[in-house]
Write a structure and sequence with these properties.
single chain, alpha+beta, 3-stranded antiparallel beta sheet, about 45% helix
């Protein structure tokens, strides 16, 4: 039973703290806003390959962990749907 619990805790830790990459592209060259295009890349190289496949010249690959999303999700409940971007 202890082995199963340790395995579960290890998998939960990897899920929460493993860094994933999101691809954002700037569509308007005169704007500073980047639009999210794809999420959940396992590596930075995979994110760059996706940007190359879309022929995106100005893009960002942002690293995040799922733990960040859990923390920011509770903050989003206080806003209306129009405020969330």
């Amino acid at each position: 039973m202890v082995k199963v619990l340790l395995l579960f805790l290890a998998l939960a830790g990897v899920y929460l703290f493993y860094p994933f990459w999101d691809l954002s592209v700037r569509e308007d060259p005169f704007s500073s806003h980047y639009s999210p295009v794809a999420k959940g890349f396992w590596t930075r190289d995979a994110c760059h390959e996706a940007a190359d496949a879309q022929h995106a010249r100005n893009f960002r690959c942002r690293k995040h962990a799922n733990f960040e999303r859990f923390l920011s999700a509770s903050h989003d409940y206080g806003h209306s749907a129009d405020d969330i971007r």
